[in-house]
Amino acid sequence: MNDARDAGVVVVVLMTAASREEAVRIAQMLVGARLAACVQVMPEMESIYRWEGEVQRAPEVLLLAKTTDACFAELEREVRALHSYETPEIIALPVNSVSIPYLEWLTGSVLLRRGGQPGERASSAGTGNAA
């Protein structure tokens, strides 16, 4: 494992969707657009939350997307455009440590958003600094 300086660009984005179909549509868009290297669609769960002053309960599907912080703004924009919720959950959590092979695969699977040409594949070079 590497220390946090090596993984500083990696984030795991938690999102929820109203249905499996919506979750799969979002996941396929994110991976297809190279905004995430991988998106896991978890089984349906029950969410309990406060909305418009009332405690609500609803079935939801959890998505876990692995990406870089440089992709987050565009990922958020695209998810909001597709999502059925007025206020979708889109939370990026920093990754403190990651194996070198996984880091290289992840950064090679998403597009550079800073410091590269549009459409250029990200490389593991330059991923040593936390963003």
Describe this structure in words.
With 131 residues, this protein is of the alpha+beta class. The protein has one domain (4-109): Alpha-Beta Plaits, CATH 3.30.70.120. It contains four helices and four strands, in the order H-E-H-E-E-H-E-H. It has helices at residues 4-7, 20-32, 69-82, 100-109; strands at 10-17, 38-51, 54-68, 90-94. The protein has a four-stranded antiparallel sheet. Strand 2 and strand 3 form a beta hairpin. Helix 2 (20-32) packs across helix 3. The longest helix has 14 residues, at 69-82. The chain is elongated. The model is unreliable at 1-6, 115-119 and 121-131 (pLDDT under 50).
Annotate the secondary structure layout:
Elements (H helix, E strand, L loop, with lengths): L3 H4 L2 E8 L2 H13 L5 E14 L2 E15 H14 L7 E5 L5 H10 L22
Antiparallel strand pairs: 1-3, 1-4, 2-3
Short account of what is shown:
The protein is an alpha+beta fold. The chain has 4 helices and 4 strands; from the N terminus they run αβαββαβα.
Please give a handful of descriptors for the protein shown:
alpha+beta; Alpha-Beta Plaits; 4 helices; 31% helix
